[in-house]
């Protein structure tokens, strides 16, 4: 792993709110003097923008608050110097999302809902998930039907295999290939390759031979799939 990879990983974990308290302090100290690092944090915040449209509100279990109060009671009894806590690390953030399944997805949904980011040109968003519900790719589409496909994780494949991107806008016409995609970097898909984009449209990535599917449809297993939604 390169130093750039390490920086990206640390910046992403900071944005997700999964670092320890000591690591958070170290990151914030570095942000004060490292402009490139601040830029990577800003990149991750913008890169993940739009996923908030996929996070449905969930009412937490009332018993959760009792457990939290019992856990925090001993700490509350001991006075300590006031510290400035980032909003994405606050108790309120966790209370708002405490029962949303996988921990990383919980934090991510809350961050994206509250994050003060500029209005995006992307009007549609989809998160493509693996069969075990791991988020693997982010699909964004603008009003011109141009698509940006961004990896959210690293997909390792054999040298004689390739990832192929598909969409299904009309079941009667079947899936449309949007081409082979690199496993480790974003790629733009021009509107000319798409049959249009509409809410609910299916996008998926399959594992194919290195030259792509020999048919006009997927021939290998589906690695990631998801339906696009309109950004709120």
UniProtKB/TrEMBL annotation:
GO terms for cellular component: plasma membrane. It comes from the Bacteria. The keyword Transmembrane helix applies. The chain crosses the membrane at residues 93-114. Residues 100-222 form the Anti-sigma K factor RskA C-terminal domain. Signal peptide: none annotated. GO terms for biological process: regulation of translation. GO terms for molecular function: sigma factor antagonist activity. The keyword Repressor does not apply. InterPro entries: Anti-sigma-K/W_factor (IPR051474), RskA_C (IPR018764). Keywords: Membrane, Transmembrane, Transmembrane helix. Pfam families: RskA_C. This is Anti-sigma K factor RskA C-terminal domain-containing protein. It comes from Candidatus Muproteobacteria bacterium RBG_16_60_9.
